[in-house]
Amino acid sequence: MFRRFVCRLAVLGMIVGAGAAFADVVVVPAGHGVLRDIEIKQLAIGDPAPDFELFGVDMRYHSLSRYEDAKAVVVMFICNHCRVSVDYEDTLIELANRYQEKGVQFIAINPNPEYKVAADGFLKMVERATEKNFPFPYLYDETQKTAHAYGPERTPHIFVFGPDRKLAYKGSIDNYHEPPHFLVDALDAVLEGNPVQVRVTREGMGEYQVFGCTVKYMTPEERKAKGLRY
Question: Mind listing the domains of the chain with CATH numbers?
Answer without folding.
Answer: 2-225 (3.40.30.10)
